[in-house]
Amino acid sequence: MTCSSHSGNRHTVSIDQSMHLSIFKPYLQRYRASLVIAMLLMITEVSVELCSPLILAHLIDAGIIPRDMHAIFLWGGILLGLAFLSFVCGIANTFFAADAAQGVVHDLRSDMFRRLIACSITQRNQFATGSIVTRMTGDMTQIHNAIFLLLRIYLRAPFLIIGCTVLALIVDFWLGMMLVIATPLSITLLLYVIRLSAARFGEVQKRVDHINRLLSENIIGMRMIRSFDRGRHEAQRFEVANQELRREATRALRLPEVSMPMLLFLMNLSVLSIIWFGENRIVQGSLQVGAVLALLNYAIRVSAAYGFIGMIVSNLTMAYAATRRTAEILALPASEVIAQPVTKDSTPDASGIHFHRVSYRYPNTAQYVLEDVSFQTEDARLIAVVGLTGAGKSTLLRIIAGLIKPERGQVFLHPTKKDATPSRPTTA
């Protein structure tokens, strides 16, 4: 047996960037009804908001200015009815959005757990324990929030921006162009922020994994830490990791937060332009007061929609990183069947355990833990496996138990007098 130390370096399963989101398609399809109903309710709610400024403009021009009480009660009643409809749609949308988000996350968490149970130890060791805990808890929370808020709030923003811009052009083309000019500049800025934020939030998740790993190590090894007086050293390690997490989180959140004042500045310029030029048009008699108020209402709604953009960018970029890390777990292959029954003639005439030139090395390592190991045991014999730390004792037992597959060589597990099952070879 060749003794060699094994470094437990973890690595990440490679997932194609264009394909990892497709893994979640079956989970979303299971809750298609809730997703579709939530979308329709949200679209109805947005449609009511888009119609309200037009009705308000007609109320002012046809009712308030000429003091027509019949028109005031008529259009005011319509506004109240639409407000009640929007209220009902909002409550129902929350219910169906929560049902879809909770259902998807429940199924994802269950399948991740089953996949971790079914995969081989070699595949499982690709992820640190702290990383698995983060993926099963924190990442699931991020995905849940992303699905729920997309159906409840986030998709409202693009619908409102596009709808308000189009209706503003219908009310008055030249004043509506103030919103059209600001929109491409805002979209360009948002795309730039999203592209940079996605990579930064991925680094934040790695720092969270490191924090969880340190906590797990300290909790498990608390007695050893106290016995060897390593408390101060472990506290320093945790402080360094905590500082790194704070630095990366601050760096990731700074960009979306800085983008918000810039977006609001662009939209406030549009509002000021509408007020400035609209006042001149009213004095000239070419535009009614209600139309200017409708345009201002649309501009304010667009500004409010952009107010959510910073939160949307932050949450969706964190959710994107979470989906990628979740897909790495779901992409783990199921463990192979290590041992298959064979006839007695295909095995050597012996009993017990027979290793024939078995070699094994862990992923991402060049040195073999076990190399050309050959031995044979007898039934009903107690055998002690002795060796230094890293000599391969645990690896040897894992191969015997069928938990990992050797890279080269054969392993025969022969039947005993108490066990009449056929022998089971492991062949690399």
String of helices and strands: HHHHHHHHHHHHEEHEE
Dominant shape = elongated
Question: How many helical elements?
Answer: 13
Uncertain residue segments = 1-13, 336-348, 416-428
End-to-end gap? 18 Å
Average pLDDT for all residues: 79
**Tally of DSSP β-strands:** 4
Helix coverage percent: 55-70%
Task: Quote the beta fraction.
Answer: 5-15%
Lateral arrangement of strands in the main beta sheet:
2-1-3-4
| Main beta-sheet annotation | 4 strands, antiparallel
Rg from Cα: 32 Å
> Which structural category fits the helices and strands?
mainly alpha
How are the secondary structure elements laid out?
Layout (H helix, E strand, L loop, with lengths): L24 H5 L2 H33 L4 H50 L2 H4 L4 H8 L1 H17 L1 H16 L1 H48 L1 H6 L3 H54 L4 H19 L1 H22 L22 E8 L9 E7 L16 H9 L6 E6 L10 E4 L1
Antiparallel strand pairs: 1-2, 1-3, 3-4
Helix pairs in contact: 2-3, 2-7, 2-11, 3-6, 5-8, 6-12, 7-8, 7-11, 8-10, 8-12, 10-11, 10-12
Brief summary:
By secondary structure, the protein is mainly alpha-helical. It has helices at 25-29, 32-64, 69-118, 121-124, 129-136, 138-154, 156-171, 173-220, 222-227, 231-284, 289-307, 309-330, 393-401; strands spanning 353-360, 370-376, 408-413, 424-427.
Task: Walk me through this protein's architecture.
The protein is mainly alpha-helical and 428 residues long. The protein is 68% helix and 6% strand. It has 13 helices and four strands. The model is unreliable at 1-13, 336-348 and 416-428 (pLDDT under 50).
